[in-house]
Write a structure and sequence with these properties.
By secondary structure, this protein is α/β, with parallel strands linked by helices. It has a 7-stranded mixed beta sheet with strand order 2-1-3-4-5-6-7, sandwiched between helices. Helix 11 links the parallel strand 11 and strand 12.
Length: about 500
């Protein structure tokens, strides 16, 4: 028997696009919370939903461990948890019910629960941990297990029901400033051999996830921050290197993903980190996320290269300065171009996150973004549409336009849940066109490189040639289809109805 069973509701199989990509990472936030509970003397176990088949696997884990307390601790380092996908919310509510039926006390922590505690309490949770959860969890567990006494109302960071059913919210808990004080994740609870086998079979290398920071102080008005708010705290380079060294010694990852919202925001941090790694002769290639303005600071990109950066993703978002300004992004289009050039010159791959559909974006702004991608030639891209999350200024701007559906079902949904510039069908088609054009350029570049070295021609070169031919033949058709869908949202709804605009205008 385990006193506490930790789990989370992000089941990769329920997200078809990411299931196809199959790049799973253990639930980092959940593993840190479990390590905190273990440090406090509790017996802990883990249900790792990432590789589960369905919620039924949670039921089996509950039966096997028979915990007194079940904790659904969503991985706040997984950006999809922040998006609160409907399929995962449904899984969380089902998992809460299963635990309650077995007599467990049920605790929930995560972005969606912090925004909508009633929803999770109504599903059967006893407590919602609002915001950052580790300190609240330790204090709450102490009271639930009888190790300490006092009123739950005096525990900051909680939402729960009184005996009369009234919703009670306690005061906001101060977030943890000294991240070095946290224990390292309880990696031993996860089946890392299974993760290794999946990564090696699908990609030929093994990647693990870490985080060096928490939070983001910037003001992009579409970015929700229900866990850390505007605060930003960072681990010391030595502390991060300690974790890397332990991971290398025990699990031998070939690659790391630093899951920070923004790595190395503090000036000089990456330079210090690189120096620490060099002193220890420790080097593991990694990918991470930064901002173009931060990367352009003196010696910054050179420090990334010294530390082992293989790929740096940036939130490019748009090739239109008008849209970047409307988003309160705080960056300039020319900085995107400069950062991409400098990263490539340093031997670092470049990833662009692109966002379409922000209010005020028309065809001109979309074409500016497409042209930016063509000119900057990123090595990878991620394409999405603007997503109104609670607590953001963007959400306030479009709240009156929101329909019944206010969350995507999965990460490939791309539904325009507000009155965006164009309809959902246009953005889904735009997504296909952007990726097809990107893949055509990428495969053509790889094929050209192979043809310059004919002795190295392999079967892969034939595949690249076939891919180039396929994308070259189908791209014009996909563009034509996109153009047919490129009508303002109201007009497109009319056209889809089968009425002419004049006919529609005569309908009461």
């Amino acid at each position: 028997m385990s006193e506490i069973l930790f789990g989370q509701s992000y089941i990769l199989r329920f997200d078809p696009k990411l299931w196809r990509e199959m790049r799973p990472y253990p639930p980092l936030g959940c593993l840190i919370a479990a390590a905190c509970a273990r440090r406090a003397g509790h017996e802990v176990a883990l249900f790792d939903a990432m590789l589960a088949r369905s919620e039924a696997d949670w039921d089996a884990s509950l039966d096997a461990h028979q915990p007194a307390i079940a904790v659904l601790y969503e991985d706040n380092f997984n950006y999809l948890s922040k998006m609160c996908l409907l399929r995962m919310r449904s899984a969380a509510c089902a998992m809460i019910g299963s635990a309650r039926r077995r007599g467990c006390k049920v605790l929930v922590c995560g972005s969606d629960a912090s925004d909508h505690p009633r929803r999770y309490l109504d599903a059967g949770a006893d407590f919602v941990l609002v915001g950052e959860g580790e300190a609240t969890l330790e204090e709450l567990l102490s009271r639930l297990t009888g190790a300490s006494h006092g009123s739950f109302e005096d525990t900051p960071g909680l939402a729960f029901r009184s005996s009369s059913g009234e919703l009670i919210r306690t005061s906001r808990r101060q977030i943890i400033g000294d991240l070095d004080s946290l224990p390292l994740p309880a990696w031993d609870l996860a089946d890392l051999n299974r993760y290794r086998e999946i990564w090696m079979r699908r990609h030929g290398y093994f990647s693990l996830n870490m985080a060096t920071t928490r939070g983001c102080p910037f003001h992009c008005n579409w970015c929700a921050k229900p866990i850390w708010g505007q605060a930003y705290h960072v681990r010391s380079p030595e502390n991060v290197a300690d974790e890397m060294q332990r991971l290398q010694a025990r699990y031998r990852p070939d690659h790391l993903w630093f899951a920070d919202d923004i790595i190395a925001l503090r000036r000089g941090w990456m330079e210090e980190f690189a120096a620490v790694l060099e002193r220890r002769s420790l080097r593991i290639p990694f990918k991470c996320l930064s901002r173009v303005d931060l990367l352009l600071r003196p010696n910054e990109i050179e420090s990334f290269a010294r530390a082992g950066a293989e790929t740096v993703w940036v939130g490019a978002e748009s090739g239109s300065q008008k849209i970047l300004d409307a988003m309160d992004k705080g960056t300039r289009v020319e900085q995107i171009h400069q950062a991409a050039r400098k990263l490539r010159a340093a031997g670092i791959r470049v990833g662009f996150f692109l966002q379409f559909g922000y209010p005020g974006e028309g065809r001109r702004e979309i074409e500016q973004t497409l042209q930016m991608v063509r000119e900057c030639r990123p090595d990878e891209i991620g394409v999405s549409v603007s997503y109104p999350l609670p607590g953001t200024r963007f959400h306030e701007m479009v709240s009156e336009q929101l329909r019944g559906k206010q969350n995507w079902v999965d990460s490939d949904d791309l539904d325009m849940m507000y009155q965006g510039p164009f309809a959902t069908s246009f953005y889904r088609q735009l997504h296909r066109v952007v990726h097809k054009e990107f893949r055509l350029r990428k495969h053509a570049g790889e094929l050209l490189g192979a043809l310059r070295r004919p002795r190295r021609l392999r079967l892969a070169s034939l595949r690249q040639a076939a891919a180039c031919g396929y994308h070259a033949l189908t791209l014009p058709w996909e563009r034509m289809r996109m153009e047919r869908l490129a009508q303002p949202q109201g007009l497109q709804e009319v056209l889809c109805s089968g009425l002419t605009p004049d006919q529609a205008g005569n309908v009461d």
